[in-house]
Amino acid sequence: MISMLRLVDRIAVEHKRVWRRAVASSVAGAVIQAIAYLSLFLLIPAVLEQSDDIGWLLMGLVVLLILESIVRLYELSFGYKHAADVISNLRLRLGAKLRTVPAEELSRRQSGDLSTVLAGNARDAALLAGDLGVTFVRLVIIPVALAIGLAFVDWRLLAAVLFGLVVALLGLYRFRSKMSGSVEEMHAADARSASRIVEYVQGLPVFKASGQVGAHADRLVEALEDQGEVLNRTQTSVTAPLALGSSGAHLIVVGLIAMAAALAIDGSMSVATAAAVAVVAVRLGEPLVLAGALTGVIEVTQSALRRIDEVLEIPPLPQPASPSEIEGSEVVFDGVTFSYRDQTVPAIRDMSFTLNEGSLTALVGPSGSGKSTIARTLMRYADPIEGEVRIGGTDIRDVTQSELMKHISAVFQEVYLFDDTILENVRLARPSASDDEVAAVLHAANCESLLERMPQGMHTRVGEVGGMLSGGERQRVAIARALLKDAPIVILDEPTSALDSDSEVAVQDAIDELVRHKTVLVIAHRLSTVARADQILVLEDGRIIQQGRHEELLSADGRYAAMWKAQTAAKRWKITA
Amino acid sequence: MVQLASGQEPVTESIPPPSPVSGLNALRNLVEPVKGRLLGALGLSGLSGIAWIATLVLAARIVAILLDESTADLWFTVIWTGVAAVAATVLKTFASSVSHHAAFDHEVIMRRQLTEHLGQLPIGTVQGIGTGGLKKVIQDDVRGMHAMIADAPPFVGALVTAPIFGLIVMFWIDWRLGLVAFAVLPLVLGLMAYLMRDYPELQKKFDAAQESINSAVVEYVQGMAEVRTFDGASDSFSTYVHRNAKFTEFLREWFDRSRSGALVARILVAPLTMIVVVIVAGTLMNSAGLVQVSNVVAIALLSPLIVESIYPLMWMNEFLNRSKLSATRIHEVLDLPTLEEPDVGKEPSDGSVRFESVTFSYDSTREPALHDVSFEVPAGTVCALVGRSGSGKSTIARLVPRFFDVGEGRVLVGGVDVSDFSTDRLLRQVALVFQEPFLFAGSIRENLTLGAPTAGDEEVQAAAKAARAHDFIVELPEGYDTQVDERGASLSGGQRQRLTIARALLADAPIVILDEATSFADPENEAEIQSALAELAKGKTVLVVAHRLSTIADVDQIVVLEEGRVVESGSHESLLEARSTYASMWEKHERAMSWGIRHDRVASS
Predict the structure, then answer these.
(1) Smaller CB count within 10 Å for chain A: N or C?
(2) pLDDT at B322
(3) CA A387 from chain center: how many Å?
């Protein structure tokens, strides 16, 4: 619980003072409430004696109520006045954060998870946590203040409170130990069932063919039943501890009343005081019961807070203290070893090569050989373990991220288009570009036929036509984007056979336009595409095993020659019945 | 309840329930299987509420006994107070235990019901929703109902009984003081009604604001790579900033409008207020000789209960709303229409495939994907479908195994309408090589024999050899018994593809449907996959969705599609001679295949 208050404190930043004031108000309100209840120790005797003080005491009670209400206003002000701004600032901070963390960190997390943090968790954190936090504070402080008050009335009353507390803590302890034993088992059962569900959905055509659906999907049903059994078993094991734990609060109430009765009969406590103890006892027990009911909600809220905190705590990509600038477009990999996080084997090892200014270099090799890693390292996806990447002689770690990006354009197979017009999607690359300039690059990227189909040409929103854009068309829009950016270095992931011939020719023409006069790095799938490259790097297991021009590599009769042979054979394969 | 809570807690105000009717209906239908136990939990919880009232009444009785200075029944009453208090706890814990067990069983029931239903849907529908979406519904949304089924009932029963019995007892003890305590209720309800006056409209606005910020978030996160690469892209960040500002503005407006009223309500509906009102009124009435002190104490004990019993549900409200949303999504999946199957399936006469004037549309609001398509593939021949993306060739491939039902016309396999087959019979007839290669977590052998459980070792190995998979399988640590982990991650794409081809070989379906693009997801292994496919095609009826025209030059028949219509068909040579659509596609293809990036090198430095 304290950790929750602290987490809210962390995420509130600009509103930290308001938040702390809300918590302090909650504490003050709880104390005032406790004093109001404790005033019964004066009021009840006064009433019984028909004393003249009754009027004053009643007025005092009303004043306390008014005071408490005023303090409550401060307590609630966080939720009602500032929560909206806290959410807003939190979202902006999270948004800005995402731009500074290494791209590797982003791809390690599923985009859905990050969206949940920015959308749902950020909202919950401010709304739920703020409200629950102050409520919980009140529910805890009231009993504590009352217990202290009771101790002053008669210290023996504390025995009853302690008795109830011990029972509650015992139950809680048993509950915790049972749960900690089962948590992993439950997670494992959940994970297994989730993966079986995925498997079932993906393999549905195959399972249907062999009649393994519904009740006959043995593997799935087994995992589901098992999941249910683990959950049920855990529930059974925690029922008794829960009963014990939650009876604590009620035992405190009954214990206090019994103790007061005993003391009253004994003569060591007045009857009036004993009557006041009864009311105070219930006021002490009830918040504890309510606090117990809150724990589930608090746990969920706390995990939302923790997820936010986790994102805010991702270390950003180190930025240079005094950034340099890049001049020229010669790219040098100098003894670069790069390893993905959570992986023991480096993806590329001690890699050295140079992309001369204005030259075309192709990367070829099987999947997993390190082609994409080279492209990513050049864009500073994350920093290498060893060696350095230089552009125009400057280490890319010595320039700011935006300076680096100014010099690189990249076109990958997966193209993301924003839900905006095609025009704006392209203009992204250079916000100052005029409509005419955008139209010109769309033309150069062979997007004419695509625009003709759109109801409002380049002013059509991508969202409206979503499915209407084919893979090839999206790629051409991405190329237009890169053309507009006109960066001196171009990284290109060659389109594969997923495109139909029509699209392919159009994309190919667009690429020719894009790479003109640039320093180009191509991830090649079809060797014929890059036969004219100035330099071909043949990769295997993260190392360069061959390097040279097409003709040189063919005559060398190594890995490249073998690949070439296999691919030319593959070009004309035949299916005949 | 929803209304009460919404007026008081910013939590609940800002996250209004979804369309309440559909959510509630969905819930009612979905909890049917555990209804009995839920009622049981509610009953136990109700009893617990009564037991707690009894505890308080007995506690008041103790005070009365003490004030009367007669100790006759004192210890007897104390013991009963303890019994009632413990009973209140135990009953509530039982209620919670019953509802939790019901919730966990309900999860299993729901998941089985959902997966059973998926098995009866057209596969196209299932794939349309996607694995991720379905996993979310089956796993997360089913779990999402937990708040409603497990957490709420133990409080709801007491929420009903405690205030009602509390009020009855208070009136019975002293109707005048009871009335004072009761007076707060209409006051609060009236205030609520006033506060809620434009709630539906605000809620609609909130939903819209929420949706708009959520979609901006998703876009921002998904497009992060683009945002970074074009770092001048303050543009897309500004959409996010702009929508965020609008959401904030709306939230602020909502809070501003409801603040004063809500604050008053929150201060009125509080235990301290109830107690002070009762004590002040009680004391004054006592001075007037209207009521005994012990009765004032009794009502001071009971009155806060009216407000306190609703707190837990107020806190849970947000989660209950999410439960409702989850229930709605589950219901949507269960409501998807299933594929109708004949009681007794027919048997095919051979391996031929025929389309008879087929018109098909994915969505009634969209242009049909296929218009009046007719062609025939005689048993044992190879037919290639060609055309640009979106021309309908993949749709044809999906209609043969009846992933969707056609709108007009018929699809015949072996002379039988595909809707006259039982689904498993039809799918045994057709081998599909156009999916992402599918492997489940199990041994390689289990994966290969999925469609042919009786196959012996020799058959399995023969199929693996034919699929060019045997060599890499025996190099694995445990050969055919090697476990393939989740999604076969330890195998390369090409290896997984060859394993699924081996599986298809074992299943020995007379018809093979194959999509070139997905079959060659791994260009490095192309040659080997091609040999494997050639083996699979031997002696079969083959329908191939072709992307590279060179691969199909020798097939028996080529069907050329354009915008969902068959525009030409015939052999490669005859189509080239016709000098029409196919001929121009061929020309473009030749150009694409010989392309090499043209790069005018700048004078090297």
Answers:
(1) N
(2) 81
(3) 32
Q: Rounded to the nearest 10 degrees, what angle do helices B199-222 and B234-268 cross at?
A: 150
Question: Strand, coil or helix: what is B386?
Answer: strand
Supply B101's token pair: 């067990």
Name the pLDDT band for B22 (thresholds 50, 70, 90). Answer: low
Q: Which residues 404-433 of chain B have a CB within 8 Å of chain A?
A: 423-424, 427-428, 432
What are the DSSP calls for A390-419, one per residue?
A: EETTEEGGGS-HHHHHHTEEEE-SS----S
At the fourth CATH level, which superfamily is domain B353-592?
Answer: P-loop containing nucleotide triphosphate hydrolases (3.40.50.300)
Q: Would you list the domain boundaries of chain B?
A: 2-334, 353-592
CB A127 within 8 A of CB A83: yes
- Contact B228/A at CB under 8 A: yes
Fold classification of B2-334 (topology level)? ABC transporter transmembrane region fold (1.20.1560)
- Hey, of B89, B264, B388, B591, which one would you mutate to test binding to chain A, going by the most A CBs within 10 A of its CB? B89
Q: Are the C-beta atoms of residues A129 and A7 closer than 8 Å to each other?
A: yes
Q: Which residues of A touch B222 (CB under 8 A)?
A: 111, 115, 416
In this complex, the residue of A115, A208, A264 whose CB is nearest that of residue B221 is A115
- Give the model confidence (pLDDT) of A412-421 as tens digits: 877 888 878 8
Across the interface, do B428 and A209 touch by the CB < 8 Å criterion? Answer: yes
The rounded distance, in Å, linking the Cα atoms of B515 and B499 is: 16
Q: Report yes or no: B578 and B571 within 8 Å, Cβ to Cβ.
A: no
Residues of chain A contacting B531 with CB distance shorter than 8 Å: 573
**DSSP H stretches of helix in B147-233:** 153-173, 175-195, 199-222, 224-229
Reported ipTM: the value is 0.82
Distance CA B128, CA B125 (A): 5
pLDDT digits (tens, 9 = 90+) for A140-161: 999 999 999 999 999 999 999 9
* C-beta atoms of A498 and B300 within 8 A: no
Burial tier of A340 (Cβ tally within 10 Å: 0-12, 13-18, 19+): middle
Name residues 110-129 of chain B within 8 A of A (Cβ). 111-112, 115-116, 118-120, 123, 126
Rounded to the nearest angstrom, the minimum Cα separation between A162 and chain B is 16
Q: Which of B219, B221, B200 is nearest to B211 (CA)?
A: B219
A468: closest CA of chain B, how far (Å): 9
